[in-house]
Design brief:
CATH architecture of chain A: 3-Layer(aba) Sandwich
Number of domains of chain A: 1
Mean pLDDT of chain A: 95
Strand order of the largest sheet of chain A: 2-1-3-4-5
Distance between the termini of chain A: 16 Å
Mean pLDDT of chain B: 91
Largest interface: B-C, 37 and 56 residues
Helix content of chain A: 40-55%
CATH architecture of the largest domain in chain B: Alpha Horseshoe
Order of helices and strands of chain B: HHHHHHHHHHHHH
Shape of chain A: globular
Oligomer: heterotrimer
Number of strands of chain B: 0
Number of strands of chain A: 5
């Protein structure tokens, strides 16, 4: 089973992603901010990180920077999902090494489609 | 025994004091150190400036250009300790920053001193920038104010931005009361094509309705 | 069954306390668990339901409330944050004893110290801070571990400072007298080597060890007190920060940062995480434990 780490400070958002991802056959773990996400990343091999940008302690961009800064995580797929909707936000995310970027709120079909794509799960 | 108490305590303390007097520890000296020193010196200056009420503005100025995360956090701690109107206004302005870390540190800081933000909150909830409105709802989470539920209800009834409403629903899942039920249903209606809103609204309703009743 | 009856009510399992019907519904539990996870990083799932419900009900009654809903509002908004601290206390196990969280001590001798000494010149001192030291089990454990398990202990001088805000526990720590409960995890050869039985079921730690540790009173949240503490290579700050309010936690962590050498390590309690405190430390994963590190280089402007 592919493992996904959902990183968002809003409990309801994490619940929502969990529901969609579990229905699609993923194993879901959670973190409330980028720092907790880094700790979890060190303990478990995740196939995909879904990361909000605005979070306390460590925001999504800073998380991405620290993650990509380590050899171990250079190839880990990261999807940013955010309310930040300017083109420059998207560009910044890709410049820091994100693999994908979705605007909030996500639409279920599209969200799962890209999660499957990023984890190499065939899209049926 | 390789584990030993160190006897030269007094000399050590003198050494530390001398080192810290490399710059004058008065206000002017601290300001200089805040902008010109090494990261360690800047951090010490930020800490010591917490004792000076006039330091809010220079601390805020430095915050906007400071790149070292430990210095930023020290500046914020000092701004929180000073806690005057200049500090609060300055932190509120940081909500608009392009720098994600600065924005989010500012939200966390404002959540630590909610009583000081109360007078600004209504205006922030009506800010023309939806991101600022989202952050204002975030701050409501730590605000002990009789109008919090009412403010959340207004967001659900009137705010046009789906993510502002989503943030309000997330908070209502934790603090929602009977009072908010009709506004939640209204939000479901207004955003009937948004699956996340439907989901979040249902969570809040479920928690309000099936939670233990008041006594 | 300990005064509790668990029955099914519709699709909910609810726990009734014996004398009053304070109910924690599934929704209440979910709401509470989310809140607690957000604040502390500790997750309670359904398997912990009974444990949590019981303690919640205790706290609800202890604070004079008659239902979860009113208690939760009180909990969320109490200005001092004291009830949250009481609740955390009730929900976490906080016993002190020798070799508690031994995996961190292992990490200290196997990973942290080798890295630290690789950056030191011969003859340089290694400084370790145990704060809060409480009744001394932790700093003495550190000392014993170094003497017994650190292969390079004879090549370096180590200074251990043990601090607490409470002078009563500091006095006890200096006396070094412990009950069987405290020493229960110690291998026998260590007990024999470093402790003397006092006959009444108590043991006293050797005079050498008692004299080798410096005990001091410190308020970790007051930078004026902590600024005298500098140059630490390892800090053990276990099961303290979790009990602080958000601001005190942040300030305490920053004070510890200031007290540390670049590259120094800090260990928190097993259910604590910097993710609820501050982003200024680097996360380091060792095979035995996750610890935090003050960044090495200080990039100048």
């Amino acid at each position: 089973m592919k493992k996904v780490l959902v990183v968002d400070d809003a409990g309801t958002v994490r619940m929502y992603y969990r529901k969609l991802l579990e229905e699609a056959g993923f194993e879901v773990h959670e973190a409330v901010n980028g720092l907790e996400a880094l700790e979890k990343a060190m303990l478990t091999d995740y196939d995909l990180y879904i990361v909000d940008i605005n979070m306390p302690q460590l925001d999504g961009y800073s998380f991405l920077q620290r993650l990509r800064g380590s050899e171990e995580f250079k190839q880990s797929p990261v999807m940013m999902v955010s309310t930040e909707s300017e083109e420059q936000d998207k560009e910044k995310a890709f410049a820091l090494g994100a693999n994908f970027y979705l605007f909030k709120p996500v639409k279920p079909v599209e969200f799962i489609k890209y999660c499957k794509l990023l984890t190499g799960v065939s899209y049926e | 025994m390789p584990i030993k108490k160190q006897e030269e305590k007094e000399e050590k303390l003198v050494e530390i004091e001398q080192e810290r007097r490399r710059f004058q520890r008065d206000f002017e000296g601290l300001l200089k150190q805040l902008s010109c020193g090494t990261p360690t010196e800047r951090r010490w200056a930020a800490r010591d400036l917490a004792d000076y009420k006039e330091a809010s503005k220079p601390l805020l100025d430095q915050l906007l250009k400071e790149e070292d995360i430990s210095v930023r956090e020290a500046i914020i701690s000092s701004l929180l300790k000073i806690g005057d109107e200049i500090a609060i206004q300055g932190l509120i302005e940081c909500l608009r920053s392009d720098d994600a870390h600065l924005r989010n540190s500012a939200i966390e800081a404002l959540k630590i001193i909610p009583e000081k933000v109360e007078s600004h909150i209504e205006k922030l909830l009506k800010d023309e920038d939806p991101d600022v409105r989202i952050f204002a709802v975030n701050i409501l989470e730590s605000l002990r104010h009789p109008k919090v539920i009412q403010w959340l209800i207004e967001v659900l009834e009137k705010d046009e931005n789906v993510n502002v409403c989503g943030t309000a629903l997330d908070l209502l899942a934790e603090v929602g009361t009977e009072e908010a039920v009709s506004a939640i249903k209204k939000a479901k209606e207004r955003f009937k094509d948004e699956p996340y809103i439907q989901f979040a609204a249902d969570v809040a309703l479920r928690r309000i309705n099936a939670g233990s009743n008041s006594c | 069954m300990l005064g509790q009856t668990v029955v099914r009510q519709g699709s909910d399992f609810v726990a009734f306390s014996k004398d009053e019907d304070i109910i924690i519904t599934d929704e209440d539990f979910e709401k509470f668990a989310d809140f607690f996870y957000r604040k502390t990083g500790i997750r309670f799932d359904e398997s912990k339901r009974y444990f949590v419900d019981r303690r919640l009900i205790e706290r609800i009654k202890a604070t004079g409330h008659k239902c979860f809903k009113n208690y939760f509002t009180f909990l969320r908004f109490e200005a001092s944050g004291k009830e949250l601290q009481n609740l955390i206390n009730a929900l976490t196990v906080n016993e002190t004893y020798f070799f508690r969280e031994e995996y961190q001590l292992q990490s200290m001798v196997k990973r942290m110290l080798p890295e630290i000494v690789s950056r030191k010149k011969p003859g340089e001192l290694i400084k370790i801070w145990s704060i809060p030291c409480s009744t001394g089990e932790e700093p003495y454990s550190i000392a014993i571990y170094l003497l017994e398990y650190w292969k390079d202990i004879d090549r370096w001088d180590v200074e251990i400072i043990a601090s607490d805000i409470d002078t009563n526990v500091l006095e006890k720590a200096k006396k070094g007298i412990y009950s069987e409960r405290s020493i229960k995890n110690l291998p026998n050869h260590i007990l024999l080597k470093y402790f003397a039985p006092l006959g009444n079921g108590e043991y006293q730690i050797s005079e050498d060890l008692r004299n080798s540790i410096e005990f001091t009173k410190v308020n970790i949240v007051d930078p004026k007190e902590t600024k005298r503490y500098r140059g630490f290579d390892i800090v053990f700050c276990r099961n303290l920060l979790i009990y602080f309010d958000d601001l005190s936690r942040k300030i305490a962590a920053e004070n510890l940062y200031d007290a540390m050498n670049p590259g120094g390590f800090i260990c928190l309690g097993h259910s604590e995480s910097m993710s609820r405190i501050t982003p200024i430390f680097k996360v380091r994963k060792f095979p035995e434990a996750i610890v935090y590190q003050k960044p090495l280089e200080e990039k100048d402007k």
